[in-house]
Amino acid sequence: MIPLPDWAMRQVRTLLIMLAVVAIPVLITLSRVKVPVTELGTTDNPTPYGYTVSLLLFVVPVVTIAIWHLRLGAPSDKRAFVACAILMTVLGALLDLFF
């Protein structure tokens, strides 16, 4: 096996972290399904806390990107990121309420 250079190892590690950031919330969300879809009509609540837990699909990647960006980004990038995050959070909450 040919050893990879340092820059390639960093890219592989970054890719694996990105995969984990998405895969872990997916596994947690899917583990919350209590009744299969075929039995949907027999129970009142087939996925207790399903919507709340599914928000992890968005929260975990955003928090991970925020930590990475706020630690390593330029000051102007940090201000832009925080402003965008606040705007998207407010708009997302409003859309959730109205739809």
What's the alpha carbon Rg, rounded to whole Å?
A: 19 Å
Shape from CA axes?
Answer: flat
* Strand runs, count: 0
Proportion of helical residues: over 70%
Spatial gap, N to C terminus: 54 Å
Percent of residues in β-strands: under 5%
Low-confidence stretches: none
Tally of separate helices = 4
Average residue pLDDT: 81
The structure class reads mainly alpha
> How do the helices and strands follow one another from N- to C-terminus?
HHHH
Question: Could you explain the architecture of this structure?
Answer:
- With about 100 residues, the chain is mainly α.
- About 75% of the residues lie in helices and about 0% in strands.
- It has helices at about 5-30, 50-55, 55-70, 75-99.
- Helix 1 runs antiparallel to helix 3.
- The chain starts with 5 loop residues before the first helix and ends with a helix.
How would you sum up this structure in a few lines?
With 99 residues, the chain is mainly α. It has helices at 6-31, 50-54, 56-72, 75-98.
Would you spell out the secondary-structure blueprint of this structure?
Blueprint: H1 6-31, H2 50-54, H3 56-72, H4 75-98
List keywords for this structure.
99 residues; 73% helix; flat
